[in-house]
TrEMBL record:
SUPFAM superfamilies: Glycerol-3-phosphate (1)-acyltransferase (SSF69593)
Alphabetized UniProt keyword annotations: Acyltransferase, Membrane, Transferase, Transmembrane, Transmembrane helix
Protein name: Lysophospholipid acyltransferase family protein
Domain of life where this protein originates: Bacteria
Record PANTHER family: 1-ACYL-SN-GLYCEROL-3-PHOSPHATE ACYLTRANSFERASE (PTHR10434:SF40)
TM segment ranges: 7-30
GO molecular function: acyltransferase activity
Amino acid sequence: MNVLRSLVFYAGYFLAMLVCGVLFLPPAPLLPLRSRYRLLNLYNHFIIAWFRLVCGVRYEIRGRERLPDGPCVLLANHQCEWETVYLQLLKPPVCTVLKKELLSIPIFGWGLRLLHPIALDRSRPARAMKQVLTQGKRRLEEGLSVLIFPEGTRVAPGQRRRYNKSGAVIACRAGMPVVPVAHNAGERWPGRHWVKRPGRLVLEVGEPIDTVGRSPEEVLAETEAWIEARLAEISEVPRPEAAEAARPRESAAR
């Protein structure tokens, strides 16, 4: 049953991408940035609704009322494609930090380019970090929020990876709040398998974390602690202990 649901889902997924590419991409560059977001995000709205309808997923979105009125840095755990789609809708317009290879995908990547993302070359980490800090601060000053996945890559449910502090650095330099986001989307939309799974998908938005007068390390530690605590509550897959998660880092350091 899950295989059939997933086949139907992907049929609609690619058809929607094609239709939106034909109808929305040509006029999008002519629109102001905020109007461009509203137009291109119609695709995101469809994918989120289609996934729920076809794959038997029940959404439980908590804490949207906690989002600040002004721009902020959204820091979320990264398990699969679902959160990259949904978080574009959480506080638009939002600038996403992503790998530049995504911009080469036909139709999908062309649409991404029009939304002013921060596209990184991960083969050049020093340059990528400088790019994130410079462009991220600029986007916040322009009134856009910035979305960063501090784990840097998809992390399967039940696993843990060290958080990168670039998002906290951007927020501290700009004096903007950090908003932590936790979810269990990878349990419904596996990151490395195409078959989707029915059940409850929970996403929770935390209280904004003030950055004024605080160090990035302090802000990141508070963010990570909140996300991990929420994941322990909402995840069906048990979370690893912090000591176990730290062990690979210690081994690598040696």
